[in-house]
Structure formats: structure tokens, C-alpha cells
Amino acid sequence: MRSIPLLSSCLAALATLAAAELNLSQPLLSKQVLPSTFKPPQVFKNANLVRTTNLDKSYPRETINVIIENIDSKPQSEYYLPFESSLLSKVGGLEVRDKKDAGKGVFKVEVVGLDAER
Amino acid sequence: MLKGSHRSYCSTITQLILRHSSTEFYRIHLPEPLAPKKQTTISITYSVLSALSPVPAKIAQSEKQYVQYTFSVYTPSAYVTEKQKTKVKFPNGDVPDYTTLSAELNAEKKTDPQKQGSTFTYGPYNNIPAGAEEFVSVRYEFTKPLTYASLLERDLEVSHWGGNLASEERYWLANQGAELKNQFSRVEWQKTSYMSPPTSALKALNLPLHPGAVDAYFIDDIGNVSTSRFRPGKREANLELKPRYPIFGGWKYSFRVGWNADLDTYLRKLTKGDSYVLKVPFLEGPRISEGIQYSRVHLRVILPEGATNVRYSTTVPIVDSTTSIHKTFMDTVGRTTLELHAINLVDEFREKELFVTYDYPWSAGYRKPIVISLGMFAVFAVTWVLGNIDTSIGKKKTA
Hints:
heterodimer; A: alpha+beta; two-stranded antiparallel sheet; extended; B: mainly beta; Immunoglobulin-like; 2 domains; 7-stranded mixed sheet; 25 strands; 13% helix; disordered N terminus
């Protein structure tokens, strides 16, 4: 009696043999490229900024706590943080959080490069 | 002619420099748009890899190591900054060299930096325009190895039949610290090793593994390295490695470690359908107090044959991900493999989890035994057929 499920599973396995397809997940693009004339729109100002550089470990750990203010007339949600290209290639583990409300989790960040050819 | 070519050479260099010094951005998406005239406080954290350079670049074997860090006291920003300051926290008070800035820049007319124990403060500065920079350097004592992994390959192999999760990690380590001024002296090393003074050499690595890890191994290019200790425990299993030689500045060491673990603690079957969820740490590397930098991390999750619909989620920033097929012994269609690539990680990412979900129909698990039994059956059938062929010479006996 026990052999019946085994047999049926064997048959099913044979059936899937031919039809083994893969779902390929989309590769993530790490970088968006903008034209070289791009300048971040001046919609914010940093009211107060305190940076702490921690040199306890074999790599410097930077923490920037900044009060940002919207000086535009419309609501804004994109804040730009500039790095020199040579420095950007060495920056790792960049995380942005809400200082007052840690429960909001890590904000979405992405690297945007400028098109050097144009 | 020569002059002309020289000039064009110079101009290419300037072009290269110009192109090289272009600015790129991190775009931060605030979860909800900030209304006009409203303020919010955000906290940005990041690490800078390969940022410390040993000065002097060559030291004696048991000498103190000093490293230099150069940064801009004006925090790079794309916006006007009304008020800002930079605090630098040193590991100790031994800071022989640092850049002093004139009191005119400072908003409170103090000469920077202001010292308070092992913390230096530059600033406050008022109304700094976007993109302004003022570079300063600090040099401080750091008699610890600057451990840097140029590449870490980490494989996780899931076996449903064996109920096993096999992990293997391959490291290409280097010490970015100060090089030895003279030859390495084994006598001096042995003399001081009993007192275990601070040293710029990497002596040992400690890998805290999850409890339940078994069959640990530590191999390098030569073969098994016997100077390792594996201590299984209830809270964590400790794998203590000692490289074949102390890794001084500029020296390299590559090795591999691996272990097995019970799959039940990492894998859950969803109640609906044939879906499984695998929860594994993204990094399980060494834990040392001064930290490790990883330039590139290639993580491969090798799922069983016939696993489909592979998805993953992790808080580690991933540069690239692919799903491919990994073929190994006795495979029929090959194992579905999820490959994740990350760059510029530090050992703080040890705590981050990786979730992989995939569909694995129960029929897929039977594929391999069936193929193997069919193969065996085919061998017997062929033997039987071949055995029946009459190869005798002469007439058949028909009696």
C-alpha cells in the first residue's frame, strides 16, 4: 500500500524531468547614470550638522546627524549626498535612518553616477 | 615635436584627473516627502575602506604603528550648511600629528582642533556653501593589523536529502599596515609572543559560528593547517584559526574554512505549497576587535536540483544578483544557484540576515534516485541483451 504514493511521486518526478525550467530573477543595476550637467536641485538646507568620525577600528566609521529643512515651495523627498568618485568607490555600508524614529527602518538609497562621456 | 607631444600628454593627464575627480551622488529617498519649511533629522552612517595609510610606511617588527587619515572638515554636502562641526574619536590619546586650522574659520573664533581626551573637534563652522571642502590630516597610533579581504567567496549548499547546510568560505586576506623595515626575525617574534604585546601583525582569527556547526576545516594552498581549534558550544561554536605565519603589513594570506550544520535550524517549509524559506547570515567571517574590511563578497547559495522561483531579501546592499545552474557530481539538470555580489562591506554586516525563498516540489527530490535507478536498470538491461547474443563459432546444437 505504501508503494503507491512512492510510485506516483516517481511518475510525477519523471514528468517534471523534461519540464525543469528556471525563473531567473532580474539582475539589479547598481547605478543610475545621469547627464554630466546634473546638479542636485537646491531644495534643502542643512540647519545643523554634526559629524562623528570613529577611528576605533581599522576603517573610519562616519556618522552624520543632520537636521535638514525643506526650503522649496513643494514637498520634497530626494536628498543628495555627494562624494568624489575616488572616495565613493571606497564608501561601504551607507545607511540612512530617521534619528528621532528608528522604527522607520533604513531608508532607500541608490548611487547615481554622472555620465562622463557627454 | 617633443614639446607638442608632451603638452598633449599633460592635457590627457589633466583630463583624466578632471574625469577622475567628478562628483557622484547617493540619492536618499525619504520615506515620506518633507513639507515646505519643515525639518527632520536624519542619521547617515558609512565606512570608508582602505582610507588609513601607515606613516611611516616601514616600521620595525615590534614598533608602534601610526596611521594617517585625511578628510574634509566641511562635511561634503550638496546643500548650504548653516552650522556644522566634526568630531574625531581616536582609539587612544597618542595623536602626534594633526592639521591645525586658523581661528578665523571657526564660528567661535577658536583654533581647531579643540582637544578633549581622545576626541578632537573641528568647528563649529557657519554658512558653508555646497561642495566646499577643507582637507585636514590626523596621524595616530594604531598598533593593530589593518585586515583587508580583497575577495571573499562564500558558498552555502542546501541538501534536502541529507538535511545539511554546508558552508565554505574562501578568503584572500592582506594586511594594509606598515611594512617591515628589516627582515622578519622569528627569534624576536617568539620572544615577544608570550607577553602578547600589541602588534601590527595579524596573529589569529576567531570565527564565532552558529551553534550546531560540525566538521570544521581550515585549509590553505599547501593543505590542512593544524594550528586551529574548534570549540563547539551551546551558544556559539568557536573556530580559532592561526595562520601559518603572522601576517605583517604588505603580506598576504589566502585560505578556506568550511563546516556543516543541521538544515532544520535554517530552513522552514511554508504551510502552503512547496515553498521553502532559508534564513542564513550574509557574512559569518572572523570577529576581531579592530574589524575587517571586505572589498568584494561573492555569496553563492546552492539550492537543490529543481528548485524554482528563487527570490531573496536582505538589508545588505547588493551590487548584482544572478540565478544560474551549478553542476556537480551525479547531477541531472544541475543545481539552481543564487549568486549575490556585494562590495565594500565591513565586519559589522555579520549580523545581517539573508532570506531566500524558493519552490521545491516534492517530485523534484525524487528525480535523482529515479535517474540513478534507471541508469542502473539500463546497465543491467544492456548486460542481459549482450549476454544473450550468441557469439559461439560453429553450428548451433539443436538437440
